[in-house]
Design goal:
23% helix; Jelly Rolls; 3-stranded antiparallel β-sheet; UPF0047_YjbQ-like; 7-stranded antiparallel β-sheet; Secondary thiamine-phosphate synthase enzyme; 3 helices; YjbQ-like_sf; alpha+beta
Length: 151
């Protein structure tokens, strides 16, 4: 996994910091980005507030999910494959047989998350992590917009 965190910008109206995160994916699956989000919050000198995480693509998505047992992510990919199979006979197939199923999978997961931040730290549960889910078969460079607002 290759990640790149862009420069952090700050507005003059309140405390709002923005940056972009670039993630290189190789294949369908989950890429944990919790560490990159924590790094952004440290660089932004975050206090108490909210972190909005938005993926700028219609064939990749975001989720909060268990980060302890990788079998959970394997089973979730199996469930998404059954929900939106590549060989379903989709009408939209101009970009290949994996494109329309990727759109369906994104629709049932999320393109954005809003996460609570206290004292500069994500308020996640013990076994929770933040993931980018790649739904396409070939490698992609995915862009995620991070916006922190708070103290």
């Amino acid at each position: 996994m290759t990640t790149t965190l862009g420069p952090i910008g700050e507005t003059t109206h309140g405390r709002i910091c923005r940056a972009t995160l670039a993630i290189e994916t190789r294949r369908p699956g989950f890429t944990e980005i919790t560490g990159e989000l924590a790094r952004f919050l440290r660089q932004a000198q975050a206090g108490d507030g909210l972190l909005n995480v938005f993926v700028r693509h219609t064939s990749a998505s975001l989720t909060v999910q268990e980060n302890a047992d990788p079998d959970v992510r394997t089973d979730l990919m199996t469930a998404l494959d059954r929900l939106a199979p590549r060989d379903f006979g989709w009408v939209h197939d101009a970009e290949g047989p994996d494109d329309m199923p990727a759109h369906v999978r994104t629709m049932v997961t999320d393109a954005s998350l809003v996460l609570p931040v206290a004292e500069g730290r994500l308020q996640l549960g013990t076994w929770q992590g933040i993931y980018l889910i790649e739904h396409r078969d070939r490698p992609h460079r995915r862009t995620i917009v991070l916006t922190y607002s708070g103290s």
